[in-house]
Design a protein that fits this description.
- Helices cover 20% and strands 36% of the residues.
- With 107 residues, it is an alpha+beta fold.
- The chain has one domain.
- The longest helix has 12 residues, at 11-22.
- Strands 1-2-3-4-5-6 form a 6-stranded antiparallel beta sheet, covered by helices on one side.
- The mean pLDDT is 83.
């Protein structure tokens, strides 16, 4: 499988693309302002580089995804629950057809 090299300058667009293709919480509302997040997630979000996190809420639940460029053209994404506990993480690669593929699960 050939992969497309990701740009660290475009991590925000890459993270949006991955989440839209693989998670796509259609009924969830995107939260762009860290001040709207629960305290623990807010603390996590403000410590991350700008443009490297996305949060979504559905009225009762809130979740945050944080991304960073990984080795070998990958995007490492960590998912956090409302208490800011990591609940899942993996390294994703986009193939030459533009589809995101999970390369490895990480702790």
């Amino acid at each position: 499988m050939s992969v497309v090299r990701l740009s660290s300058r475009r991590i925000n667009a890459e993270l949006d693309n991955l989440l839209a293709q693989r998670w796509g919480p259609a009924q969830w509302r995107r939260v762009d302002d860290a001040e709207e997040l629960p305290w623990r997630l807010r603390q996590l979000a403000v410590d991350l580089p700008r443009g490297t996190w996305r949060a979504y809420a559905d009225g009762e639940s809130v979740a945050l995804a944080a991304g960073q460029i990984a080795e070998n053209a990958g995007l490492a994404v960590r998912f956090y629950d409302a208490s800011a506990q990591q609940c899942a993480a993996g390294v994703w690669c986009v193939d030459s057809a533009g589809r995101w593929r999970l390369r490895e699960v990480i702790d």
